[in-house]
Amino acid sequence: MTRQRLLVSMALISMCSPAFAQFSPGDIKIFGYFQTSLSHQSRLQSDPEQNSFSLQQLNLFFQKDLSQNWAAFVNFEFLNNFSSSRQWGSANLEEAWLKYRSRKEFNLKLGLQIPIFNNLNEIKNRTPLLPYIIRPLVYETSFSEFIPVEEFLPNRAYVQVYGFIPLATEAKFDYSVYLGNSPNIATPRPDSMGTVQTGVDTSDTFLFGGRMGVRYRELKCGVSASLDNVNFFQGIETFVGGAPSRFDEVRRFRLGADFSYNLGPVSFEGEFITVTYDDDLDEVSLDKSFYYATLGYHLNERLYFYGSYWFTGQDFTGIFKEANQVSLYKGDADIKVPTAGLAYSISDRITFKAQVARVLIDVIVPIPDRSQKDSGYYYTAAVSVFF
């Protein structure tokens, strides 16, 4: 097993397994990760050339073993130089769950949690254990202000059962199923004057999801899926006709696949995600797709080099006004990112990183002179710490 995979396994065990240490009901474990970076961005679209330091992400964890089989876990996340007084970044309660584990093959989690979807979703916040500074785009939570990362991934569940079933020698069948809220969550409105309970689901639907996969020695692969209902399409009836109820709780389906393999010092990992909406409209599309592939090489136990390619494609619908007529049009926005980098671990708790990426943006609109192409470079260095 490579050093990187060993570190990831140790981190997951330390956060998720009451058996990691001898049980002591009085002990509470407090630990976390943070990553701070220096970046240079060339001119891209309307953004000028810029340099910036950033405390990109900090996760603070609390874990307590409540009994031999029960444990509690809390995860606070702070992004982008968080400061409430300056209105910078964001602070989120990412997880607060209770876990029951009678054996390795069966686990039950109750409470707010990040569900299992593909390979990276659960471990995307373990920044010292990942080689990237900027993670594959839909996993880069510091970009959530301008990339709709939560449309690609189920990020909040409340009940989850997961584990594995032993198969042949050294082979395991992984499984998980989970349940959560729909994305139709109440948020404050200027006219609500504090009369709305925020953070609760405003519909009678749920998020359903799960993953099935196989592990064999250094090979891991699986298929993930989730199903929920969204209200993104409300108001479209103004342009396409029909009853407003036709666009309530439109079904959204996410499908993902992941594959990873290690052969000596060489490693490969990749994922694929599609997001489709059952809107049944030719005039409207919000479908999305994403994939990435990373090939890496461990020069030694501390130094890791990699090259990666990321692609994000998003359909969108715009409004075109000409004279006294208003019509809808469908467009497509693609982001392609070839990137390369290295990670050097001076200890099990400190990792230095460097990364360069070329960003290619292609916006296609079926209206003359509305399509756009742009490209730019992103250079960054960072240090990640496990404390």
Topology, element by element:
Elements: H1 3-16, E1 28-41, E2 50-65, E3 70-83, E4 88-103, E5 106-113, H2 149-152, E6 157-166, E7 171-181, E8 206-216, E9 219-230, H3 237-240, E10 250-263, E11 266-277, E12 288-298, E13 303-322, E14 325-345, E15 350-364, E16 372-386
Antiparallel strand pairs: 1-2, 1-16, 2-3, 3-4, 4-5, 5-6, 6-7, 7-8, 8-9, 9-10, 10-11, 11-12, 12-13, 13-14, 14-15, 15-16
Give structural attributes.
387 residues; mainly beta; 16 strands; globular
The first-level CATH class is given as: Mainly Beta
* Widest sheet, order of strands: 1-2-3-4-5-6-7-8-9-10-11-12-13-14-15-16
- Report the total helices: 3
Give the proportion of residues in helices. Answer: under 10%
Low-pLDDT runs of 5+ residues are: 6-21
Give Rg in angstroms: 22 Å
Q: From the coordinates shown, what is the CATH architecture? A: Beta Barrel
Strand content: over 45%
Order of helices and strands: HEEEEEHEEEEHEEEEEEE
Major pleated sheet: 16 strands, antiparallel, barrel
CATH topology: Porin
Quick summary:
With 387 residues, the protein is mostly beta strands. The protein has 3 helices and 16 strands.
Mind explaining what this structure looks like?
The chain is mostly beta strands. The chain has one domain (3-386): Porin, CATH 2.40.160. The chain has helices spanning 3-16, 149-152, 237-240, and strands spanning 28-41, 50-65, 70-83, 88-103, 106-113, 157-166, 171-181, 206-216, 219-230, 250-263, 266-277, 288-298, 303-322, 325-345, 350-364, 372-386. A hairpin with a 7-residue loop joins strand 15 (350-364) and strand 16 (372-386). The protein is globular. It starts with a helix and ends with a strand. Residues 6-21 have low confidence and may be disordered.
